[in-house]
Design brief:
With 54 residues, the protein is mainly β. It is 0% helix and 46% strand. The chain has one domain: Ribosomal protein L33 (Rubrerythrin, domain 2), CATH 2.20.28. The termini are far apart. This is 50S ribosomal protein L33.
């Protein structure tokens, strides 16, 4: 199956500065800005904001 350019793979990096990352896909048509999700950071031991890096 061909990969679509409308749903690219993005890397989310922790804002806590621990270096923890998540990899996910996003829809560029619905979310043209950088993605920000609140997820669990195991190194910090709490939920923190993860921002899309480029």
């Amino acid at each position: 199956m061909a990969r679509s350019t409308a749903r690219p793979v993005v890397t989310l990096r922790s804002s806590a500065g621990t270096g923890t990352t998540y990899v996910t896909r996003k829809n560029r048509l619905n979310d043209p800005d950088r993605l920000v999700l609140r997820k669990f950071d195991a190194a910090a031991g709490e939920h923190v904001l993860f921002r899309e890096q480029r």
